[in-house]
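In the current project phase, our protein records have gained a structure token line. A sample record follows, to show the layout:
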Amino acid sequence: MINSLKTIAVFGCQLTSRYRQGLCNAFNTAAEKYGVNLVYFNSLGNIGAKYAQYGKYEFDIIKYIDLDPFDGIIFDGEGYNVDGLAEKIIDKLRGAKCPVVSVSSIVDGFYNIEYDDAAGMRAMTEHFVKDHHFTKIGFMSGYLAHEDARIRLNEFRAVMRENGLPEDGVGMFEGDFWFFKGEQAADYFLSLDERPEAIICANDYMAISLITALKNRGIRVPEDIAVSGYDGTLEGQDFLPHLSSVTRERSIIAQKAIRLILDINEGNSDGHDLVITPKIILGQSCGCKKVDYVDETEKVNQLYAMNRDLNGCLTDMESCILRLNKVSDISMLDDILNNYFDNFGEFSSFFLMEHTDRCGRFSHDSDFVAPTGRFTPIVWIDKEGKYPRKTDDFFGSRLVPETGSERPHFYYIMSTHCAERMFGYALIEMKEKDIFTEFYNAWILNISLTLETLLKNDRINKLIGSLENLSIRDGLTGMLNRRGFDELSRESIRSIDEKHTVCTMVIDMDGLKRINDEFGHHEGDRAIRTAADLITKCCDSGEIAGRAGGDEFYIFAPEYSEKKLKRFTERLEDFARRYNCNSNKPYKIELSYGSYLTEGDSSSSLEEFLRISDLRMYDMKLAKPGRRK
């Protein structure tokens, strides 16, 4: 697929979150150790608290992914925050022929690396009870509809009962696994008849929000109330006081997941689920460690440096958004991304693939009909020259370009879509084992908006073109109308830089009134269209032809000659004769015409030329025996 190494797909959501950034680094480190490629399929999910529409259509790309080329699949289902999305991916992965390992949730039919949540909560609760000898302990749970929240609460209760303490301690508060319930939780615990000596939180984010709320109320942590978290997040270790928590041992999870896939492929595993035992992090929030002010000062300096970098990145991003807003053609994207695509980490290659329909039209083309599962590269950035560019398309079994490099590669694939339309996908390879920052997500969103803008502009331009065409075209025949004929003919005259022989012709139908009277106006319209078709068929030497109105037609021909005029009139008469022989109509298409060949330049009068041609046309009409109006 990519090179001769085995390739493992990783399905996850919100990989730029602090926890999953570390998990990706752990997977990449393990993949490098075992010599395998990784292809991440990343989803952003719901963006922010107020916009929940983006994630609903984000993973339409799942239907175009062919799982057969992969040697194994890792599923991290915990991060998905769009209802039904994790289930949709699980259904897809059930059809895989290779081993599928779930690393954050138990999925029937997959191999599972189970994180022993209960053991971690037991260890933390026993630490508070047996090492600190706390007896008045509160518990802040996650929302109880979540399985992890129930497991952690039940184990807390079990340890409390085993030690002769009330199972809910001094009280249990149901939180949200996030930062929004800290104030309510602080008020709840401080309002209890027995103030807690310690509060165990079911994750680090709630612990941070609770400690902040307690500080705002004059409560010192850990001196007045000890607090612990769970999950061992980087945020919890940066926060002051550093959280006592329980770590998920990401490096162990990553190594065991990849090793399990390789062993199954090699027939060296019985395929049993694996269990990871968590470890306690003893920090400052429970009183086990003191603040090291020298170390904290250095961390503050690092945060200031990060803030300066962040401000610089924001300025660059604002500038690039303005540049993307000026994109009027898809070819401009390549130059902008080649020159301004940065501030999210060092990358070695980036490919933007866009969906095409059966006619090869891109998905940002308003005439795009339906996706085919084939993608064409519209941006190709290969900084190290590892990917020879080919002209063929990409599709489900080959979403990643081939390379001759035999070292492990780590790719990240994300959908590019806006509203309900998936334009295609973006693929990036970072230079190091760390994943990109949140700025890359912002780039992907802005690229998607640019494609949506191109789509809307294409619709508008085609609508304008259609309206303009209607304004210069005759509705009955499709020829230029009088306005269109005048505009194009005058433009042609203005472009004459020296004298040339030009020609005008006026052509009129004979007997249209009789056709209308005897056979109806619908038959008269049919006769006019036939005459228009015959005239148009003769125009193959640069002639500009139009219907002036009724049964009269005008022609202007720059750089003409007697020979061309003779050929035109002979063909016109021949085409009319053939039509009349084969039409089986009760009437004939007969035409009278007048022409005027003269020297013309940019100051010539089109009206004067047509006037002379019109007089000559009437001379021809009057000369016909038994002439008809």
Q: What stands out?
A: The two ends are 76 Å apart (CA to CA). Residues 117-251+278-291 form a domain with the Rossmann fold fold (CATH 3.40.50.2300). The mean pLDDT is 90.
